[in-house]
Write the structure tokens for this entry.
Amino acid sequence: MTEHASTAAHHPGEGHPANHVVPVGIYLAVFAALMVLTVVTVAASRVDLGAFNTPLALVIAVTKAVLVVLFFMHVKYGPRVIGLVLAAAMLYLFHLIVGTGADYVSRGPVDPRPDRPVVHGEK
Amino acid sequence: MSASSADDLIRSEFLAHHFRNLPEQKEAANLGMWVFIAQEMMFFGGLFLTYTIYRALYARTFAQASHHLDWKLGAFNTAVLIGSSLTMALAVHAAALGHRKATVRYLLLTIVLGAVFLGVKVVEYQDKFVHHLVPGAGFQFEGGDPRAAQMFYSLYFALTGLHALHMVIGIPILATVAFLAHRGRYSPAYHTPVELTGLYWHFVDIVWIFLFPLLYLIH
């Protein structure tokens, strides 16, 4: 096989022309960032931010997920159609949560039996 | 691209007849895996939605119930799973470079880290049985609304159980891929199974990245 000679022009020193080879340093940097963000998640949960604790935890989790998707899962280097699949999935997820959530907060008790009022939630 | 490596991409024993070359086949396989992952997002999405609604309705009891989970074990497992994602990424990297031994080594490391995660999960589940926090007839909860606390633990077991099930399925897949890698089946031109297993494993990692703060760190 003369793969090495042929690939030198493509990605200096590494890999096959069919692959996008990401330097190991990038994986290590992403790993370090994920670990730091895990510590930040725990630290942020110990500070009382009232209603903002959960949104902050979600922002950090989304940041971590984006790092994993872009670098570990190679979406940054892959064909754009994969981004489309991902965007479509997130759009549906958004509809699912926002649509159902809106229904829950606006509808009130739904039990049709007058003697059995259902009151959800805590006083 | 030299003639020999171009040849490599159209004359592989792994190339199905309906694809022109290996990169095209690989792109189709990756796209298919991403559609599967999109489906998995919907699958977990329903449970995350249920969590969101019950958490909004019973915020106080959910926080009290959450305090019975050990955040240190949760954080430890988060680190273990992130570590396993790193070793998985390095296994794919090694396979793309044709480093057979490194591929096998990183795949085995990924399995070990996955097993450590599941071992910690067993210890955590056992603790819930001992403390009557498993939903059902034996459920006991002091303070707050026991029905809402039971809902928290139902969601805890459903979400972490499905997540753990994904890992229980993932480990034999990793073992199979490691065995085939050891046998020299994969090359820089063809190592799609290693890549797709990696996508699956990273997805499972992402699910946990959301589960950890939502289950262990609410106050």
User: Anything to note?
Assistant: The helical segments of chain B are 3-10, 22-57, 59-66, 71-97, 100-130, 146-182, 192-216. Chain B has a mean pLDDT of 94.
